[in-house]
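Report of the visiting student (M.T.), summer placement. My assignment was to run the structure pipeline on a short list of targets and document each run. The first record concerns ABC transporter ATP-binding protein.
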Amino acid sequence: MTESFAPGVRVRDLTVVYKTPAGELPALAGVGLTLAPGTITGIVGESGSGKSTLALSLLNAVQPPGRIKEGSVEIDGLGDVVKLDGEDLRQVRGRKVGYVFQAAQNSLNPLKTVGKQLLDLGRSHDVADLQALVRDARELLGRMGLDGARVLDSHQHELSGGMRQRVGIMLALVLNAHLVVLDEPTTALDMITQATILRIVRDVHHERGLTTLIITHDMGVAAEVTDSLAVMYGGRVVEHGPTTEVLGAPQHPYTQGLIRAIPRLSGDIDEARALPGRPPTLGTMPREGCVFRERCPLRMDVCDTVDPAPVTRGERTVACHAVGHQVSPPRRKEYA
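After the run finished, the structure tokens were exported:
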């Protein structure tokens, strides 16, 4: 497949709720996001902001007690995956949309070699030529700096964290998926291995003509590989735009706070300032108003009662009352 087959993705008004003793509480609230074909989009935010829930929604893989309550996830060539179920949904997962899980060891079966798991994957998707599948897997692993034959003959415990992460990337790509989601691909890896994984992500993305989504809490990772960047807080996308613009001139006070909190290797080390307070949980999420207001230095009276609508100017979108009057009137509720 060439780059022209890289699919676009349009998330519209997506709401995901989880059943709790206090009722159904939203983990995502009316999220809109567009992934342009052939691009790498990053999603950043603190733990609990909804990043992984959004990523799982691309596979319609939110598990009970969670469910997708409203909205759509349109993927070119597949339609709205929220409406898929049964065999149609199973065929999408893996073959059409590849997913690399945050904890690579949790996605591998400790009782089977990588090769046996690869064959199981091929059989589950009715791959006719399993020998060709194994050859493709060896080639992919080799391009990622591994001995493909050895890795396929290994169990999970015989591989390092970086090797398991590369195995996860191989399994996500070997069926020729052209939309790939990577959930925290460099977590718990040393700096050299992180750099290797990011290089692999970039190279494979361009060579295979992918549309890629990377979930991360690391601004450095986002700056290194992404074309556009979405910032999430409290189950909402609060800012989105080209990565260089979002990181170079952040508009939302939450994005500004995240960047101020990054430790520096030179200059005044006291310039790094932690965000005050803590991010909301499902149980402490405000029922109305801006979800960031308790930690926001720009808080106004309207923030207590009105959830800020996303406002777009050029390629940038921001959802904040304090900066909304500085940009053009809001368009449809989406992030493009």
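Residues 327-336 have pLDDT under 50 and may be disordered. The chain has eleven helices and twelve strands. I thank the supervising group for their guidance throughout the placement.
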